[in-house]
Batch of 2 targets.
Target 1
Amino acid sequence: MAYVFFGYFAGMITLTSILVVVLRNPVYSTLSLLVMFFHVAGLYITLHAEFLAAVQIIVYAGAIVVLYLFVVMLLNVNRDDRYHSQSRIAVFVSVPLSIEFLVLLSGGMGAARRDPAAMAVDAQTSDNTLTIGQALYSTYLFPFEVASLILLAAMVGAILLAKPHIGKNEDKDIPQAPGAQ
Amino acid sequence: MSELGLRLAISLTQIGAIMGIVIVTVLLLTLAERKVLGWMQDRMGPMEVGPYGILQPFADAIKLFFKEDIIPAGANKLLFTMAPIICLIPAFIGFAVIPWGPNWTFEIGGITVKPFVISDINIGILYILAFASLGAYGIIIGGWASNSKYSLLGGLRSAAQIISYELNVGLSIIGVIILAGSLSLVTITDAQQGWFWHWYLFALPAPQIFAFGVYVISAVAETNRVPFDLPEAESELVAGFFTEYSGLRFAFFFLAEYANMVLVSCVAAALFLGGWNAPYPGTILELVGLPSLAWIENTMWFAVKTYSFLFLFFWLRATLPRLRYDQLMKFGWKVLLPIALANIVVTSIAVFVTQ
């Protein structure tokens, strides 16, 4: 039963990932990205990582892809000339990638097998969220704080880029006319 | 395999029952809204169909069902068809984790059944948030696929609004999660038993009154209701994202909006108002000597709480004018967000000190 679900999710993830790159209409690409994220969440559920699955949907499907869709719809990029200059780069990228694919296919058999039953921490009964929370705030506290600091820096940077005139116009609600400054 | 079949049969029965209840509630709401608005504005509301207009919802449903289904010539057919369904599914799927009645279990053929909740998963509230955020896609895609300026602008407005206010909904709930120490709606409701001051709205050490305020306002905004109905502001955008929709597809959007209202009301009742718990300890039917019928009293209390929250939606619609778009964004990010964050800090400190 588990293999059926895994096969479905893995197949859909592969298919929709390819569709993201192949489809010509950027809105369709974004939507297949959405379907892909959804199936990744499904894969997490088959691994009994419900918390991660919910967060995956909330963050990626619920927020990030909405913003992509927003941008794609407003820009209305429907021209084909974006694709013409990319074929040479594609060759360079595809060679190492296909080598890696072959290595994975052949070497996967020789790699040290980890017994999944030995690793599972009684996932059925234990509280997933509690485990993740305790791990994040004890073992991985420092990386966690560093990650949040990086996000904060990115946020400040984005605000600075978008609003170079902070403090000059801020106290007035009505934006000034172009010649007013 | 028979165990799986039995489990499937029980789940499908529960899903069917709850879908039925939600659809009946939506039918009631469409009539109740027009009646309540009418009374508040000193009118009668619909009076023609049936006695006092009580058959109006059926007339509306039949009308929508038999209307011509038009797909505009310039529209993207596939996405135009999919959008109402994408909108409707997340609105209904969230009801799977709502506890409607007491946390009873009984055994049928070796499997444990919880009759008043379809699925008690341990991330209940996150599950609802996750699917609520997907509802925005139906609106954006519908707006874009219609290939019309009004629809596109309505869809984009809605996307921005839902993302902004979804954040506030999520943050206002965190206080309750800290107090309950669980994400499961069943556990959260169970923790609010006893007198009504045990409800998380009033509960010590950190009453969630401010969080409740933020939740109510954000919930109204997230369901695109007045005074936050900018995606369908008729004076600016004709009808917003569903301008080009007619017939059954329009009915789907309509159903999704009302189902979302019911869902956020159920969440509010379960998280802040004690869910199915009566405002007094236990139940009256239990004291009278009918403990097996106590669930009726409990589900009735849940219904009362949900319906009073739904009444609030109508009340706001009759009272408040629509916000301007920049006011909406400013209010969400500069007023509600700081309140919700401050509430998290205060609640965390209070819980830490009293532990």
Note: Residues 2-40 of chain B form the longest helix (39 residues).
Target 2
Amino acid sequence: MTMVKKSPLNNIHKEFGAKFTEFAGFEMPIQFSSIKDEHLTVRKTVGLFDVSHMSNVWIAGKEAEELITLTTVEDASKIKDGMSQYTAILREDGTIIDDTIFMHLGGKYMIIPNAGMSDEVTRWLNEKAEEHNISATAEDVSRDYVILAIQGPKSRETLQKLTDTDLKTVGFFGCQYVDVAGVDCIISHTGYTGELGFELQITPPKSAEELFYKIIDAGKEFGIKPIGLGARDTLRLEKCFLLAGNEFEGGRTPLEATMSWAINWDHEFIGKDALLKQKEKGDYHRLTYLECIDRGIPRHGFEVQKEGKKIGVVSSGTLSPCLNKGLAMAYVHPDFREKDGVLDIVIRGRQVKAKVVKPPFVKKDWAKQN
Amino acid sequence: MANEIRNDLKYTDTHEWLKVKGNTALVGITDHAQSELTDIVFAELPEIGKELKKGDELCVVESVKSVSEIYAPISGKVVGVNGKLEDTPEIINDSPYDDGWLVELEIKDKDELDDLLDADSYKEKI
């Protein structure tokens, strides 16, 4: 039997007029007003996302740091208390189980696996702790937390109204405990939109209800809106952020997913040998960023061609609300990834020309110029 | 909810509408369909002169998140397409029964019109 899980804020979403979708076993809002409108709201002012479908796992014990160092591409000893880090958990063969952020909170770590990944990640971490005699345990607490993301150029001003903590002291990827409108939260200066933004981990879930309304109230003067998963996807795609279900489908390594920047090679981790071998061979398809020249919207699974020959496959595609062009992230043969190279994306039998561009598709100052 | 249904149109249970104009008919998608699809951002229209059988794929409309095939409610030849959709596909959302029409078909077999739903029957379906 499969049960569809709901966010603890499901009723609030309904009240705000959400249309729902099922994503990784969760019924979550796909949109409230419209994807385009929500998208532009986040780029230009501020939006509030409930992302409680994401997971929460505590890693604790006197060797918690060692467990993270072994099981991710980051050396956790380099990440100070009060900082968070984006990383990936790999299998022995180098393929990604999940990408996640871990937050260092006073000797304990909280990781945020993707929706539906908490069981697998928790089990994996505990297995590895046992196999390697590491004194640490992973505990899945996903059901105890609501996760809210406040994203957009006005996100800091919005949240600042609700807390005495000077949010300017929470630096990029910083994390700490904070009181927001009387609710104890973990705040991190992180997000999935490429804009200024914060994420709040809130427990117990009930306490998030009032907070949701308070954030909406605080952002009213900026035109804050609740944002659904539709705009969350288009926002991340314009910034070339990975979506696990799309970009890791079928088993992809961080080298293929162009996550090399996140790999700390100066430590031993599960999957490292496989990555070193792959790196040496160098013949692997890797994520490539394509902007359509012709009209058309690339979608997941579409073929990429050069002179009629298949050279890759689209992992994520959409129409960009900011650029009004079709965009694709695609795994492409290394010979065809040169910047400004023109490839074809096959859309319902039609070859649509697309240009290889440097990520991100939408640059940092887009909202100021538009 | 946007669920306008017009009495002078015929409907399919796949949410297309058809408006007979002598020997030809305009085809579009219903208000209910546009509302379900959400923001339409692209319409791929057929070539003029294309012959279609009832139920064939007539065109494709895409929202940000989805791709939807629109089927020919009747058999016929494509004699016109809505050129405005190329630059402003959102008019399908704004005006599904007027400015946002998709394709004009030359009616091949008038008897097929009898198989379509009237406004009341369509209303029951949605």
Note: Chain A touches chain B at residues 19, 30-31, 34-36, 230, 233-234, 295-297, 299, 318-319, 321, 348 (CB under 8 Å).
